[in-house]
Fold this sequence. Notes:
Elements: E1 3-7, H1 15-27, E2 30-36, E3 39-44, E4 50-56, H2 57-62, H3 67-72, E5 76-80, E6 83-89, H4 95-101, H5 104-132, H6 139-167
Antiparallel strand pairs: 1-3, 2-3, 4-6, 5-6
Helix pairs in contact: 5-6
Amino acid sequence: MNSKVQFRMFTIFDLDKVEDYLHEMHLKGWKFKSNRFGFFYFEQCRPDDVIYRVWNTSYLRKNEVDLQSMKDRGWEFVENCSYSVFRKATCDVDLNDQIFFMDNRLQWADVKSRLRTSTVSISSGLVICMSLFRESLSQSFFVIFVLYALMISYLIYSFYKLKKKYLENVR
Length: 171
């Protein structure tokens, strides 16, 4: 069986883009197998219209979403790394799937969970950098500070973009 590896970088706020990417690859005849450090591994398959859902693993655990209940609904569990990947043929999606997997409120709660995690990580890193360079304001400090400013700006931008996407039809 043929296999394919592609490198793609997605942030924790781009899980919807990951879903679209995996869906597009399956339409081209490449079934998602795994992901390691931005390298997506695929196996060749018959092109098919398959929905992929990517969830933050810690969010699923925190909300006690049982893996077996997902499998019982017909969703195939593909991978569990920093996020969990499920897939199901579009023709097999029923009303219960649309309520659970496509509910904007649940997806927004997942985004907020990811925001908390990334905010803590970025803030911790910034505090560590500030303490390391507190004695001398070297050129490397300013480079690191600019990188953190860019990360925080991207975090804020992504947050409001996803808020608009998930909450525009909920109110």
